[in-house]
Design brief:
The structure holds two protein chains of two kinds.
Chain A lengths: L24 H18 L1 H18 L1 H4 L30 H37 L1 H16 L2 H12 L4 H12 L1 H14 L3 H8 L4 H12 L1 H24 L10 H10 L8 H29 L15 H6 L1
Chain B lengths: L1 H27 L4 H8 L6 H11 L7 H13 L14 H36 L4 H13 L4 H15 L19 H38 L2 H8 L4 H13 L1 H12 L6 H6 L5 H10 L3 H29 L8
Classes of the chains: A mainly alpha, B mainly alpha.
């Protein structure tokens, strides 16, 4: 079920190094960043995910260098098989499938990154505010989050997109953001709650720092890894649900995007008329981009929770020895 | 008891939120889309039915917004969802009742199968940590969980319906057969359900495996598991009665919740296979701009999820006393 979290139970509080009061400001941020890069390098799932994501980004930035045909021109012979001229053949409407696949990357990536950034922003804002302000604020914000969390997302998206009609990229990003932030907001809230009583925040309060300073400089940087994880969760959700909406014709049917390609393939009975590549290529690309986000997300789980990491050595009674010493 | 009451309060609140969304969404959109929709049906639909719908969607009515809202809540409470425009003159309730058994059968059975299989694989994978299954399963199922499930359905149609022609590609049964309790019809129903069920199974099983495996790895490190080993209990017993039994709670909660998603969880699979269930009807209603049917289906799907979550919460509280105090 696409609406359940993709990875296992996240343990938001594990693996968080207790930051010291002295390591503040930019110094801590670069340390966190280098920790992040070395973690990505040492985890195979993270490496694969990063490489895939980089490839897609390059394609999205300079599609013209890779595909030389226009993605929208309906000027080629219809329903051609793959050839040297048209690597993946042409559609029943006379478009080059390879060009469409290449140019379609941009819209999917914009939706993924846009929704990832915006809904993570909303999630951080609401999650941290709820935890930090506490009391009635926490009650109200938590309630809004929970209500949105349990209303089934995809049917809600369908209903909204139906009323909007032919949602373009910006509208899709807005709708996906409005419906999708709640899951990560709840995770961020519980981590911010667990931070509330830590000594370094107490110290900042004693120093007489303003609230805004404490939230921006003390709390949010400490939550970096969970914020990155929620960006990845939201981006994956946007790729899958955005493409799904386009597939059933609730996006802009004239846009160049993988979901829209599948919509036209389905409506022209590509599977029944032997134009297999028309349906295979865009779906495989969606899966690949989704896999990049999912692998990175799972890798972050492993980095945050060392117990989940793949075993390198076998049959070593870990923990046993550590416990005895303790 | 206080816990149950609080959960029930949340249930009522969420239900109200969903109802309110349903009511205000068409009214918030620029140039009330319901108006255009109703205009299209002015010919074939009887004036009385149309009048009722105009009130329901706030078109050309003299009633104030609050009056409309109360009116709408009253209609929903009495189960009056109006007439379907696309399936006119059938009522919305009738259309839904016809579609519901297909979805419950297909998605319900597949959900149970995915849960049992996935949990089993997760248990074995965590128990044989670092074994062959454990080195393949997690990365493979992280990837399958990212594949759009409607596309898996399309690929299954391509291979098993178009190329090999082992299974039919569309509909719930062979229409030349008379529906009833006879062998030919039952075989036809199973044949038609096989590919959509596979599409769902492939894309949903990963979550069960990963959740079970990851929780069980944590329980395997607990003292009571070491104690069981020290007592020299057989491995099977430790695996099932000690580790798995304590690790299964998140999966059980997830299972209870996913039972709620049965009604609305396979919309695109039903769409790809033209399977006449709730999800297919929802998309029919969307493409035909049959807003009364669409609203009622959205409500049905939401209520199913809410009831399942309520039951899951109460079940978790019964099984695990630790959760009762947490909010």
């Amino acid at each position: 079920m696409a609406m359940l979290p993709v990875t296992g139970p996240t343990a938001p509080t594990t693996g968080l190094p207790e930051p010291t009061v002295t390591a503040r400001g930019p110094g801590r941020r670069t340390a966190a960043l280098s920790r992040l890069t070395s973690a990505v390098r040492s985890n195979r799932k993270a490496t694969v995910g990063t490489v895939l994501l980089l490839l897609f980004t390059i394609v999205a930035l300079v599609p013209g260098l890779i595909a030389h045909d226009s993605p929208t021109a309906t000027i080629y012979p219809r329903s051609l098989g793959p050839s040297a001229q048209h690597w993946f053949g042409t559609t029943a409407l006379g478009q080059d499938i390879f060009a469409q696949a290449v140019y379609g990357t941009r819209e999917v990536l914009i939706i993924a990154i846009g929704v990832g950034l915006f809904s993570t922003g909303v999630a951080v804002l609401i999650g941290v505010a709820a935890a930090y302000l506490g009391g009635a604020w926490d009650g109200v914000l938590g309630l809004i989050t929970d209500v949105l969390l349990v209303i089934p997302l995809f049917p809600l998206l369908i209903v909204i997109a139906t009323y909007v009609q032919n949602a373009g990229t910006a509208v899709l990003v807005a709708v996906l953001t409005l419906t999708g932030w709640s899951y990560t907001a709840r995770q961020l809230r519980s981590q911010a709650l667990s931070l509330r009583k830590r000594d370094f925040l107490e110290a900042a309060r004693v120093r007489g720092e303003r609230r805004m300073y404490i939230v921006m400089v003390e709390i949010i940087p400490t939550m970096t890894s969970l914020i990155v994880a929620s960006f990845l969760t939201n981006a994956l959700y946007a790729v899958l649900f955005g493409s799904s909406l386009q597939f059933i014709g609730l996006g802009d049917p004239n846009s160049v995007s993988w979901g829209t390609m599948l919509y036209w393939a389905e409506n022209n009975e590509a599977l029944q008329t032997g134009q297999y590549l028309w349906a295979i290529v865009p779906g495989a690309l969606i899966a690949l981009l989704g896999a990049a986000f999912a692998l990175l997300n799972y890798a972050f789980d492993e980095i945050g929770n060392p117990a989940l990491r793949p075993l390198r050595r076998k049959k070593v009674p870990r923990r046993t020895r550590a416990k005895q010493i303790a | 008891m206080r816990f149950a009451l609080r959960r029930f309060g949340f249930f009522v609140l969420t239900l109200w939120a969903a109802l309110t969304l349903n009511f205000f969404l068409p009214r918030l959109m620029p140039g009330n889309p319901a108006e255009a929709m109703l205009g299209k049906f002015r010919g074939p639909v009887s004036p009385q039915a149309l009048k009722a719908l105009e009130v329901a969607f706030g078109v050309e009515t003299k009633e104030g917004l609050f009056g409309q809202y109360v009116h709408y809540l009253g209609n929903v409470a009495t189960g009056n969802f109006g007439t379907s425009l696309y399936f006119y003159p059938q009522s919305v309730g009738r259309v839904i009742l016809d579609a519901l058994p297909w979805t419950l059968g297909l998605v319900g059975l597949t959900t149970i199968m995915a849960f049992l299989l996935g949990t089993g694989i997760g248990i074995v994978s965590a128990w044989r940590r670092g074994g062959r299954l454990d080195s393949i399963a997690p990365p493979v199922f992280v990837i399958t969980s990212a594949i759009p499930y409607f596309w898996v359905g399309m690929m299954l149609i391509l291979v098993f319906a178009e190329q090999l022609q082992w299974f039919p590609a569309a509909f719930a049964y062979n229409v030349s057969l008379t529906p009833g309790f006879n062998p030919a019809f039952i075989v036809s129903v199973v044949e038609h359900a096989f590919l959509p069920a596979m599409a769902l199974l492939i894309t949903t099983i990963g979550t069960w495996i990963l959740t079970m495996r990851n929780t069980m790895i944590t329980t395997l490190a607990e003292d009571y598991v070491r104690m069981a080993r020290a007592k020299g209990l057989p491995g099977r017993r430790i695996m099932l009665d000690y580790a798995a039994r304590n690790a299964i709670l998140p999966n059980l909660t997830g299972f209870a919740m996913s039972l709620g998603f049965v009604v609305g969880g396979a919309i695109l699979v039903e769409y790809v296979f033209n399977y006449p269930g709730v999800g297919y009807m929802l998309l029919q209603a969307v493409s035909q701009e049959d807003y009364p049917l669409m609203q009622a289906l959205f409500l049905l799907i939401t209520v199913a999820v809410l009831v399942a979550i309520l039951l899951a919460d109460i079940a978790t509280a019964l099984f695990d006393p630790r959760t009762r105090t947490a909010d």
